[in-house]
């Protein structure tokens, strides 16, 4: 892979990210910033974050295939890597059937999009694919640097590594709540997980593959499910949930600290994992 993400990165929605945030995340020692949600195709935010920093990688998590034409994504990719070689990873994904009336034949649509990126000169090593199920995970390993699974568990990471083989990038996202008050932390995790993710077919199907039941995904999510998807506690405890992905085969973990002040969570985790 031509882009070195490091072992631990952060995932945040575009509204949280700015140049000052990026500079602090780099100072703390994180290897990558993943722009969450569906950033517009011009990818100006990625360029701004790279301009403000020196070495950290910026990745998209993810550019939505339905929203951004492959040619436009490729044009932005080439503009950014010309300015910041080796520091940008184009993450793309199919999104969810609930999000677009055009959703159809997701696997074939992703293959066609990757074909277009090929034609526009975006190398496989410079892109990653949002993937949860076996077919998409295999495709990610075959046609891109690897997979960026979202809302998963270390068990999913273990299964994904077995499916993809040893060489492909595996970079799961992991939500955490640095808070020892279980009720408060679970409430925060439940808000982040239940809406919209427990209303989206792709995620619920994947959770069922991992052994969670209808009762687990109903009513905003059972405590068992929320504790797995957004673990909470002291920095040591939440750091353990991150290293569990690494122990299960991840190359890189994208940490999403929840709360009104996510930076405080990232600072706390740094003291355990990055010092």
E-strand count = 11
Instruction: Give the C-alpha Rg.
Output: 17 Å
CATH architecture classification? Alpha-Beta Barrel
- Please give the domain count: 1
Note the gap between the termini. Answer: 26 Å
Number of helices: 12
- Which residues sit in consecutive blocks of at least 5 with pLDDT less than 50? none
**How would you sum up the major sheet?**
9 strands, parallel
Q: Give the CATH H-level superfamily.
A: Luciferase-like domain
Outline type: globular
**What string, H for helix and E for strand, traces the elements in order?**
EHEHEEHEHEHEHEEHHHHEHEH
The percent range for strand residues is 15-25%
Look at the structure and give the mean pLDDT. Answer: 96
The CATH topology comes to: TIM Barrel
- The CATH top-level class label: Alpha Beta
Structural class: alpha/beta
Overall helicity:
40-55%
Domain Luciferase-like: 20-116
Pfam families: Bac_luciferase
Protein name: LLM class F420-dependent oxidoreductase
GO molecular function, one term: oxidoreductase activity, acting on paired donors, with incorporation or reduction of molecular oxygen
Description:
By secondary structure, the protein is an alpha/beta fold. The protein has one domain (8-273): TIM Barrel. It contains twelve helices and eleven strands. The chain has helices spanning 19-28, 44-52, 70-83, 106-119, 134-143, 154-164, 182-194, 201-209, 214-217, 223-229, 235-247, 262-273, and strands at residues 8-13, 32-36, 57-61, 63-64, 88-93, 127-129, 146-147, 169-170, 173-178, 232-233, 253-257. Strands 1, 2, 3, 4, 5, 6, 9, 10 and 11 form a nine-stranded parallel β-sheet that branches. Strands 7-8 form a two-stranded parallel ribbon. Helix 11 (235-247) packs across helix 12 (262-273). The longest helix has 14 residues, at 70-83. The protein is globular. The mean pLDDT is 96.
